[in-house]
């Protein structure tokens, strides 16, 4: 089935493309869509051009290459081979090398909160490829933490090296955004100037539909009682990426509490926060993807404060206030994205 990623399935960014005719006589542009399975979810590509410039086979080839590189659900992937106990190093392909390099960057930026060696904890809490059937006790968590820490990884040339036996990595918190960027860059090389790429709710766009202000993207607020979802806001995306992390649907019950799938690599436990979802706008989908996971471990106002210090980063946060009502806050820059 390909890669499967740790996604919020309910707090997602819903694509609401502006409806245009298949052919716009005034500009002689066609609206062209491609879609299909990718990484355990779906991909959607929408672009405007005078003729079909993208081959489905080329898109599938890109997705397959990334799949073979970094899917923890494929036993024959490069990352799965690295995660076997008998392997202490592996030669990285270009996809893996770029994601590993970025992972070290965001590990440093987040002061350790973004950590791809978190795989043992993800599995322990029931969210990974080799998930545990029961919630762990504190002693088990402490034991698993002995194999968590990016100081146990070393890059030498194009080789990724373990410094300790048993280290396993999981790049789900960044690789889907990377995939979106690879597809977007592919469209750019084709000379396409107006497009939107989406994989599992992670989005990157450039330009505008001929009849619109930008690509309309809705941010959905689900009903806590399981009722109808509500459209909280609609953003107009003309350039850049928008991703969302959330914990409303993908969770476990632990000691009477709902705990989401975002794990704190320092404590070893899922984050206990009032935040239900964080949507991040950034230049690239990989950056937004890494940051939305990092922000899930903060309090709402902390997210805004941190984002303000990061160039080109804007945030939209949905959370439960002290009265247990659902509320939303956003950065000034994110407000400028709202549809007029």
Automatic annotation (TrEMBL):
Major enzyme class: transferase
An example molecular function term from Gene Ontology annotations: transferase activity
Reactions accelerated catalytically: L-threonyl-[protein] + FAD = FMN-L-threonyl-[protein] + AMP + H(+)
Gene3D superfamilies cross-referenced by the UniProt entry: ApbE-like domains (3.10.520.10)
Pfam families: ApbE
Annotated InterPro entries: ApbE, ApbE-like_sf
Cofactor binding description: Magnesium. Can also use manganese.
Top-level taxon of the source organism: Bacteria
Binding site for Mg(2+): 173, 289
Cofactor(s) for this UniProt protein: Mg(2+); Mn(2+)
EC assignment: 2.7.1.180
Keyword entries, A-Z: FAD, Flavoprotein, Lipoprotein, Magnesium, Metal-binding, Transferase
Family to which the UniProt record says this protein belongs: Belongs to the ApbE family.
Protein name: FAD:protein FMN transferase
Species of the source: Sphingobacterium siyangense
């Amino acid at each position: 089935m390909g890669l499967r990623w740790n996604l919020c399935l309910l707090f997602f960014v819903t694509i609401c493309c502006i409806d245009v005719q298949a052919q716009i006589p005034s500009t002689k542009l066609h609206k062209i869509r491609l879609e299909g399975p990718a990484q355990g979810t779906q991909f959607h590509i929408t672009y405007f051009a005078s003729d079909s410039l993208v081959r489905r086979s080329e898109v599938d080839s890109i997705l397959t290459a990334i799949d073979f590189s970094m899917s923890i659900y494929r036993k024959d992937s490069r990352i799965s081979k690295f995660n076997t106990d008998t392997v202490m190093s592996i030669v990285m392909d270009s996809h893996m090398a770029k994601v590993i390099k970025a992972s070290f960057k965001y590990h440093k930026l987040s002061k350790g909160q973004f950590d791809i060696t978190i795989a043992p904890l993800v599995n322990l809490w029931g969210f990974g490829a080799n998930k545990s059937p029961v919630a762990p006790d504190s002693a088990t968590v402490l034991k698993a933490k002995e194999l968590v820490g990016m100081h146990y990884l070393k890059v030498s040339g194009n080789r990724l090296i373990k410094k300790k036996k048993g280290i396993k990595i999981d790049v789900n918190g960044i690789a889907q955004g990377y995939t979106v960027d690879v597809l977007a860059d592919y469209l750019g090389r084709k000379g396409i100037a107006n497009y939107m790429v989406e994989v599992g709710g992670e989005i990157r766009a450039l330009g505008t539909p001929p009849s619109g202000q930008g690509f309309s993207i809705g941010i959905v607020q689900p009903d806590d009682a399981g009722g109808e979802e509500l459209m909280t806001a609609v953003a107009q995306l003309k350039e850049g990426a928008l991703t969302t992390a959330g914990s409303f649907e993908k969770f476990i019950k632990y000691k009477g509490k709902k705990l989401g799938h975002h794990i704190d690599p320092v404590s070893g436990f899922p984050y206990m926060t009032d935040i239900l979802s964080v949507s991040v706008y950034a230049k690239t989908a990989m950056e937004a993807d890494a940051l939305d996971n990092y922000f899930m471990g903060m309090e709402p106002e902390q997210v805004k404060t941190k984002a303000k210090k990061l160039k080109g980063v804007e945030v939209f946060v949905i959370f439960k206030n002290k009265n247990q009502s659902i509320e939303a806050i956003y950065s000034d820059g994110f407000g400028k994205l709202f549809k007029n």
